[in-house]
Design a protein that fits this description.
single chain, 451 residues, alpha/beta, polyphosphate kinase like, Endonuclease, Chain A, 2 domains, six-stranded mixed β-sheet, four-stranded mixed β-sheet, 13 strands, 17% strand
Length: 451
């Protein structure tokens, strides 16, 4: 008798708990001394970014089920509430390890190579003066504090944005009393800032945006005293719900993308490096985001730790990074550079990433230019910004060729980019289709019709 493993709860592992264990395998790379220093930093950032997706998708879905179907049993046999309890426990331990490794391993490791991320408590007087001037000239004009009172309700906080909860005492210049204010750091502001060389112990010395803002937030609240400033970040559900009966799927998805920025919350991260706010203050935040204390994660460091990956790009030292890999070409294309002639001689196997993807890009370019090509048909899942593949499809359509693009609008976190690609292709005259509702087209296919 064949064993139906999918229905055997004794062998099924909870999906979210399994993901957390996988994240720990990535975290182990951070501790591997054979990995170059800046790559170890990148691995740490990858773990935190993976945690973001875990809360945006997996845990957000479980929280929804907890409200709507609390007795729902998962394939592994756990009830939704049981699974959430175990997941929160494992995530909390993972967070403790992430920030412990950041403080006790990564920072000393970077210092060894004269790369410094200076905490505000480490700044000397000249650095403090520079930070103050930077705040006044570069940040203060951009930032807008919102004091919470009857005429100023709690602002809408977008997904994963860096914010500051400010604990206040006293009255402002208009006689208004407010106990809490919120300051948002726009995404356009760099989270990591290089310190001028004449003020730095080494050329690669950085300070964090959140430290500069936290230290000078009192500049916004004249006549009041700031009792605490706490960087925080909210994570919201990222799943999109679009009914299959929509007449225009792209327009419906565009509306949903806007709503996703303010979807249901699944996590609140609070930096308590400089002290923890009173529990009443925390409860105000939790109430605004409609989550419980179980969904609060206190951390000792930047709440947007993944943004520190910028440092790996800002430091120009190849010895601290993996050796760059140059992918080659199949033998057939080395012997015959004309890709159409090479293909006419026989099939060509392209093994990426060990071999270059450039021949595929070249194929679409030739197809767009070749007068003998009548049609180009291609699936599109993820292409990245300014994709040459898509630009070649646009060129082919503008050249009068029949172009069909099957675009997966629901490629998670690339939905907005794919909506824009669909618009560009349609404007060029291409025929765009969106696959089958309820399924994701992950296949990669390209067909060229040539006389």
């Amino acid at each position: 008798m064949a064993l139906n493993i999918l229905n055997d709860r004794d062998v099924m592992i909870n999906r979210e708990l399994g993901l957390i264990q996988f994240y720990r395998r990535v975290l182990a790379q951070v501790l591997d001394e054979n990995v170059p220093a800046l790559e170890r930093l990148r691995y740490l950032c990858i773990v935190t970014k993976n945690c973001d997706e875990l809360f945006e998708v997996r845990i957000a879905r479980l929280l929804k089920w907890e409200k709507e179907q609390p007795n729902k049993t998962l394939p592994d046999g756990l009830k939704v509430t049981e699974a959430l309890e175990k997941i929160r426990h494992d995530v909390s331990n993972l967070y403790n390890d992430i920030y412990s490794i950041y403080q006790n391993t990564i920072l000393p490791l970077l210092n060894k190579y004269d790369i410094y991320i200076l905490d505000a408590r480490q700044w000397n007087k000249e650095q403090q003066r520079w930070a103050y001037n930077y705040f006044i000239n570069e940040l203060k004009p951009v930032l807008t504090p919102i004091g919470i009172d009857p005429s100023h309700p709690f602002p809408r906080v977008p997904n994963k944005g860096l914010h500051f909860a400010v604990e206040l005492d006293g009255k402002d210049q208009f006689g208004r009393e407010s106990k809490i204010a919120i300051v948002e750091a726009p995404r356009i502001l760099s989270r990591v800032i290089r310190l001028p060389e004449d003020l730095a112990p080494a050329p690669n010395t950085f300070v964090l945006l959140q430290d500069i803002i936290s230290l000078h937030v009192n500049e916004f609240f004249y006549g009041m005293s700031v009792r605490g400033c706490y960087p925080f970040r909210v994570t919201r559900a990222a799943d999109l719900t679009v009914n299959s009966d929509q007449k225009n799927l792209r327009n419906a998805l565009t509306r949903e993308l806007h709503n996703r920025k303010y979807a249901e919350c699944s996590r609140l991260e609070l930096d308590i490096s400089n002290g923890e706010p009173p529990i009443k203050f925390i409860d105000i935040l939790l109430k605004q985001f409609n989550i419980t204390r179980s969904d609060l994660y206190r951390v000792y460091g930047p709440v947007n730790l993944s943004r520190l990956s910028d440092i790996a790009s800002m430091v120009d030292d190849d010895s601290l990074k993996f050796t760059s890999y140059s992918s080659g070409l199949p033998k057939e294309l080395q012997e015959e550079p004309d890709i159409f002639k090479a293909m006419a001689k026989g099939d060509i196997l392209l093994h990426t990433p060990y071999q270059s993807f450039d021949p595929v890009v070249e194929l679409t370019r030739r197809a767009a230019e070749d007068p003998h090509v009548l049609a180009v048909k291609m699936t599109v899942y993820r292409t990245g910004n300014d994709s040459e593949l898509v630009q070649n499809l646009i060129k082919a359509a503008r050249a009068g060729k029949q172009v069909v693009a099957s675009i997966e609008l629901f490629a998670r976190f690339d939905e907005e980019a794919n909506v824009e690609l669909a618009r560009q292709l349609e404007e060029a005259g291409a025929h765009v289709v969106y696959g089958v509702m309820g399924y994701k087209v992950h296949a990669k296919m390209l067909t060229i019709i040539r006389q």
